[in-house]
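I had to read the description of the data format several times before I understood it. The format is easy to grasp once an entry is in front of the reader. For illustration, here is how one protein appears when written out as sequence plus structure tokens:
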Amino acid sequence: MRGLLNVQAEPLRDFVAAVVQAMGAPPPVAAEVACHLVRANLSGHDAHGVIRLAHYVVQAERGELVPSAVPEVVHEHGATALVDAHRGFGHHSTAFALDWCIRHVQRHGVTAAVVRHSSDVGRLGEYAERAAEAGLLAVLTVGTAGREVGTVMLHGGRTRFFGPNPWSFAVPGRASWMVYDGSTSTVAEGEVRLARAKGEPLPPDCIYDRFGRPSTDPDDFYAGGALVPLGGTVAGHKGYGLGFAAALFGGLSMIGDDAPSLPGVPSGEDDAGDRIGGVFVQVIDPGAFGDATAYRDLVERTLAAVRSQRPVAGRPEVLLPGEAEARSRAHRAQAGLLLPEATWNELTRVGRRFGVEAPPCERHA
């Protein structure tokens, strides 16, 4: 395993915000992107963290990402909204859509928004956690599908057809919540990128090489391979179905769109009629169905019952979905973030390009 460097979250957040702003993003957009990426690292999801920054620079160079763009609501119909991200940072446009849903949910009980022309939205669970903190339920997904789209092969196929197409769900209790966030591939592309940066192999049944053979070498993925649908060879039909549904739900954003584009698909390659996708956000007020406090009490008792279950051999306890992330944030906020040396060198190069000094770091023992 290659070397690791320790850096504190706050100066790293300031560094990322300064770089994103130097790329052309307005300060609120830069702040949202920086907060999102560093919080992903804090939450233990390093593949969705600051390792993505250099990739965003490349996307901006290609015209696939427009850093200066800001989202707008282009159509409202009662409890629903269509948001156009204008190819801007997906972290900001998805948060914008979520905020719209939260503002309108007390009036309607259930609200939904779709986002078109979005770039990478980051860690989907981030938005679910925000809804749960507001005492609301949420369902979110982002998906793409079509010939040579994304990084994930069909179940039983060997060529790329889907993005990782994650789903996230939030359910609030009284003092805690359940937040599920998961890709519909066995691992996300960022996990492959992180394994390559660390010089480590992948677990079995995560990727196939370009010849349709199972592999654990991250380089085989970048040489034309593909990610495996969630469930692998035994139950890959489940990830296949969920991934397909994510793309079709996101495709609501494409209705009547004269210039469609898909999250994660390079511009100029997204004009095929069989390609579909986008971002879908739904927020639910439990008070629309009765006593919201009674519901959150019921959820809290159920969450407590989960925690009280006896673990299997080799595990100290049973954790709730989302609990590992909360514990990671508490630990890493104090201990600092450990970044692979390759990632740190990449960040330093990006900083130099935009005239932003990298934050201090220490080599991890």
